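Hey team,

Filing this mostly as a record. A colleague (T.K.) asked me to run one chain through the structure pipeline before their review meeting, and I want the input and output archived in the tracker in case anyone asks later how it was produced. No errors, nothing strange. Just documentation.

Input sequence:
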Amino acid sequence: MRHLKQISAQRPPESLSGKAAFTLVELSVVLAIIAILASLLSTALNHTKAKAHRITCLSNLRVLQVGWFLYADEMDDQLPLNKTTSSSNDRVLGRRSAANSWVVGNPREDLTVANILMGSLFPYTRSAAVYRCPADSSSVIGQTAERRNRSYSMSACMNGDDAGTDPRVKTRYTEIVAPSPDKVFVFIEEHEASIWLGSFEVPAKEKFSLASASWTSTPSDRHNQGCNLSFADGHVEYWKWFWPKKFTLDSNLTVSQQEFRDLKRLQESVPKP
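Output structure:
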C-alpha cells in the first residue's frame, strides 16, 4: 500500500493535462499586438532620428553663421565673397563658386572636401562636416555611393555677383539695415536638385506677381517639408513650408497659392533696395 501511494503521488494531476496552450485566435491577437508595438517603436525611432538631423543641421548653420561674423569682424566689416564663375570643366550648367569665395567649386561634382577647405570661410569654421546636413542623402554625379559634401548656400544678396548693380546686394555688414539683421537670412538649405553654386538667388519681389512667379534657386524641404536658415544677427530658424518643394528649372508657381506664399516669405527676408 505504501508503494502504491508513492506511485500515485508522482502521477501528474489530470487537471494539468486537460489545459490547452494558446488558441489560434489568442496567438493571432498576441502577434497583432507585437506588430503594432513594433510599428509604433519604428515610427518613434524615425521621428527621433529626423529630429536629431534637424537639430544637427541647425547647429551646422550656427557654426557657419559664426564664421561669417568672424570673417566680417576681421575684415573690417567686409562680407565674405559669394561669387560664381564660368568653367568649361563643369558638366552642370557650366558654373561654379569662384576662387576666394566663401566656398569654392560645385557640390554635385566635388569628390572631396578640398574646395570647402579652399573657401575663405573655412579658417573661421574649421570643420568641413558642418557644410553638410545629415539628412541630405544626395550623391555626387556618377558616384551614387558618394555623398555630397555641401548642403547649404549663402544668400546672393550677401556680397554676391550683382554687387554694384542690384541695390539689394550688400558688401558690408553695416549696410544690412532694412529689414534689420534679425530678419535677413544669410545661409539656407538648398534643394538637392537646385544646388550647384554657393549662392542662393531670390528674385526681386517687384518683378513678379502670382501669375509670373518662379524660383531662381529652390530651398530644400527635407525636414518634414521645411528647411533651416541662419540670419544676419546670428540666430537660426526652422521654416515649415506651405507647399512641398520640387525643383524645376524656371518652374512657374501659378499652380499653387501656397507656393507663392513661400516665395514671398523669402523675398521679405533679403535686404531692401
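Quick notes for T.K.: The helical segments are 2-10, 14-17, 24-74, 114-117, 122-125, 257-267. The first strand starts at residue 84 and ends at 86.
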